[in-house]
Each structure stands twice: as structure tokens, then as C-alpha cells.
Write a structure and sequence with these properties.
The protein has 182 residues and is mostly beta strands. It has one domain: Sandwich (Immunoglobulin-like). The chain is built from one helix and eleven strands; from the N terminus they run H-E-E-E-E-E-E-E-E-E-E-E. It has a five-stranded antiparallel sheet with strand order 1-2-5-9-8, with helices on one face. Strand 3 and strand 4 form a beta hairpin. The radius of gyration is 17 Å and the shape is globular.
């Protein structure tokens, strides 16, 4: 597994103790991500591209709660979707999850291309991530390309804040996809 580099330095915005706490948060997130990728998902991996660690996990399509009216949630089961793609994007220096990103993914295999499709944020009790149920032709080997747009959020810190100026793109080759509904 690709691991964070822990390369940020104390500055006017973050002292050594704050950076240590951020690294611990990132280490905990990476431990949860590694568990998801290696133990829970049907397949998964992590790659680095510049300032980003980008991971994926693939599982059967699954139901989720969706907001409806203010204060209400409705369980939505998959209809014809048979694949759930999860994407994690974290800081390559400290390993913390990166929020508010626009992510697109494309699966290519079995003679077809599925996507590109947007992969929105999903709350999960064990691991913040982006994810989406999709329909693919069937079980088998696919290439998964994940494209992360450069974030639009502001960054603190003159010394450490010049990060994520560009987006990222990685391709996970020959991933094994298992279809179905969970």
C-alpha cells in the first residue's frame, strides 16, 4: 500500500504538535482505508499522484439512505445497478481525507466503457469516501481510471499551503470486478 510521506513542517499556521495530531488523524484514516481495500472490498488498491493518495474499492451495488424532505431520509435499494465503486482521496503528506472534491471515474472492460461518471461524497460509518452504484456488463477484468479535479477550497499556511494546485488522474489496471447486489 502507498503510505503518506509526512513531509509538512511547522509554520506560522501549524506548530509541531498540530502537525503531529494531523498525521495521527491521517494514519487512522489510512488504517481504515487499508482495511476497506484489503479485507472488506472485492478488490481495491491505492496509488499516489502528486499531492494525492487515490484509492478505490469495488463491491456489489448496495442500498443507501438519501435525503428527501427536510428531516427525512429514504432507503433506496439498487435497481439495475450491479457494481459499487468507492474512491478515497487523501493528502499524500499526512494521509487525511480530502473533502469537497469533484471526481469522475471510467471503467473499461468486457468490450464496453462505463463512464465517465461523477463519484459523489458518501457518508459511511467506517470510512469517509466518494462512491456510486453503476451497471457494468458483468464480472471480469476492467481498467478503472479516476480523475480528481483540482479543489476549489482555500488553503491556510504560506509554507505548507501550496498544495492541490492541479488535479490528478490514476488508472488501476486489470482490477477484478464482482457484480451483484448486496
Amino acid at each position: 500500500m502507498t503510505q503518506p510521506t509526512h513531509s509538512m513542517k511547522p509554520s506560522e499556521e501549524a506548530d509541531a504538535h498540530q502537525l503531529k495530531l494531523a498525521r495521527r488523524e491521517g494514519d487512522a484514516y489510512q488504517e481504515s482505508l487499508n482495511y476497506m481495500v484489503q479485507e472488506v472490498a472485492d478488490s481495491g488498491a491505492v496509488q499516489r499522484d502528486g499531492d494525492y493518495l487515490i484509492g478505490y474499492a469495488q463491491e456489489k451495488a448496495e442500498g443507501m439512505y438519501a435525503p428527501r424532505e427536510e428531516g427525512t431520509l429514504e432507503w433506496t435499494a439498487p435497481t439495475d445497478e450491479n457494481c459499487h465503486i468507492e474512491v478515497s482521496v487523501s493528502d499524500a503528506s499526512d494521509g487525511r481525507f480530502l473533502p469537497q472534491l469533484t471526481i469522475h471515474a471510467t471503467l473499461t472492460g468486457q468490450g464496453e466503457t462505463v463512464g465517465p461518471f461523477e463519484v459523489p461524497f458518501l457518508w459511511h460509518p467506517g470510512l469517509y469516501h466518494y462512491g456510486k452504484n453503476i451497471r457494468v456488463p458483468g464480472d471480469g477484468e476492467y481498467d478503472l481510471t479516476v480523475r480528481v479535479e483540482a479543489p476549489t477550497f482555500m488553503r491556510h499556511d504560506k509554507q505548507n499551503g501550496q498544495r492541490y494546485a492541479r488535479g490528478a488522474e490514476v488508472t488501476f489496471r486489470k482490477i477484478q470486478v464482482k457484480t451483484g447486489q448486496g
